[in-house]
Every structure is written in structure tokens, then in C-alpha cells.
Amino acid sequence: MPYESIQLEQPIVVNKIVTIHYFEYMSDFKYPGETHNFWEILCVDKGELEVVADEKEFTLRKDQIIFHKPNEFHSLKANGKIAPNLFVISFLCHSRYMQFFENKILYINDNERQLIAQIIVEAKKTFSNQLNDPYFEKLLRYDNIPFGSEQLIKIYLESILIQLFRRYNSRDQLEMIYPNTIKRKNDAATFHQILDYLNNNIQGHVTIEQICRDNLIGRSQLQSLFSVKYGCGVIDYFTRLKVDMAKQLVRDNHMNFTQIADYLGYSSIHYFSRQFKKTTGMTPSEYSSSIKVLSEKERR
């Protein structure tokens, strides 16, 4: 009996990517608004954001995602207190299932957050545009890009859309959609416990020994968890966490650099500046100046 192939169903297909952004804005950031004939997703990674979609006003918080349908007017601004970090991606998709996302504000989970992170990673390797530049109108490829990187961006985005659709249409299928062994569940619980621990100690100094002792985990298991999730050790991740907080405090514009260094438990402003530059490629003052330049451009 001969084999017979089947045509695979593809209910949601992303036809083209228009822009990919990751913004770090000042606490007084404001964008007057625009309309365009393609979809746009905006997800708040940190902070809060005031969003207008057509004539409706919303406050978006961390891990909330809004879908702007084609030709929908949308504007946004920070709340003047907390500097927001935003992931924005715009694209063409003609699937009838996209109607589900119209006028929706949803929450992303860890799985979808990881997919967004992968989109950002692939975009940085594929396109020469600065992802924090709001003014480019066309993605420009590097001369040599990793094999399949553009297809991966498309797959990751389609996965986000499909998973959100399934999760919000059939919550009782969660276990079927995300099958986990007991070990994976335990690892996930331990991992989130450690993330909470690091965030609660962000104003101080921690060692691997302290983390292991306070969270009842072995050194090798601890390093393995962070290596799999983030490709680095736990102390490197903690340093990134502190620098991310420092960047937000710079953009909040309520403290000077010395106060920020003291608030985050650095032994000196000089050590803080070295760690900041090692992680971001810029000194705190260079970062502050670059963000302010973008903010001033937005106001013009």
C-alpha cells in the first residue's frame, strides 16, 4: 500500500515582518500616535505604559500585550513615574483567526516570554538596524546572516500567536499544550524561586554559596538551570539584573549615578560604572545621554 502525504494546515501564517523593536524609554516618554496597514504587537517588558487604541485608553503593565489591528490609530506614553521597556513587532498576516486578537489585551507566560527573547536574539544577528531606533522604516540585513534566522523569527512569532490563541480559547487544554514531566515542573518551580530570591536581593551582594544555601539547591544544578535558560552563570545573570535595574533608575531620572550605585549595593561609583559598561558597552552617562537624545527626537 503506497504512502499518502497530507497537506499540513497552517491557520496562522505571518507573511512579512515590517519592524522589530525593543525600546528603553524615559519615564516622561510620549509618542503622539500613528496608523498603518499592518498588525502591530506591543508588549510591556518592564514598567507601565498608557496606550490609546482608536478612542479607548488603557494602562499596560509588565507582561501585558496589546494587538493593534491594521489601520487602527494608536499612541502611547509613559506614566511619568516608571520608565518602560517595550517589545514591539509589526507584521503582515491575512489569517481570519487574527480577528480573535482585535481589541485584546492579554498576558504572556514564560513560554511566550522566551519566544519574544528569541525573536530579539535572532533580529540582532540578522538586521543591522538598532532595535531601539524608532525611526527606521525598513529592516536592513547584514551581509552574512545565520542560516535560517529570518525563518526562525517568523516561526517564533507564529508560535506566540498560536499559543495565545489556544491558551485563551481553551484554558483546560493547558496541560496538553505544555506537557511537563515532574522533574521539569520541579525545575521550573526552583528556577522561579531563585529568580524571586535574586530580585529580592538586588540591592545587595550575593554569592553562589549563599544562593545554594538559601534555596536548597546544588551548585551544579543551579549553574545548569541558568546555562539552559540564559546561556550564562547565575552571578552573570544577577549582574545583568542589577544593570537592568540601574538602566531603569537612570531613565526614571529621580537619582544621580552615585545614588543609584549606593541603592544597588555597589561598593563604589567606579565599580558600578565598570560593571555597567561591561554589560551595556556604555558608561552610565553615555547611556543617559543616548536615551535623552532619543527622547528629544520624539518630541520634535
Overall number of domains: 2
Strand coverage percent: 15-25%
Characterize the main sheet: 5 strands, antiparallel
Distance between the termini: 70 Å
- The top level CATH class name of the largest domain: Mainly Beta
Number of strands: 9
Would you write up a description of this structure?
The chain has helices spanning 110-126, 149-169, 174-177, 182-200, 208-215, 219-230, 234-252, 257-263, 269-280, 284-299; strands at residues 16-24, 30-34, 39-46, 48-53, 56-61, 64-68, 74-77, 85-92, 105-107. 45% of the residues lie in helices and 18% in strands. The chain has a five-stranded antiparallel beta sheet. Strands 2-7-4-5 form a four-stranded antiparallel beta sheet. The longest helix is centred in the middle third of the chain and has 21 residues, at 149-169. It is an alpha+beta fold and 300 residues long.
Summarize the structure.
This protein has helices at 110-126, 149-169, 174-177, 182-200, 208-215, 219-230, 234-252, 257-263, 269-280, 284-299; strands at 16-24, 30-34, 39-46, 48-53, 56-61, 64-68, 74-77, 85-92, 105-107. The longest helix has 21 residues, at 149-169. With 300 residues, the chain is an alpha+beta fold.
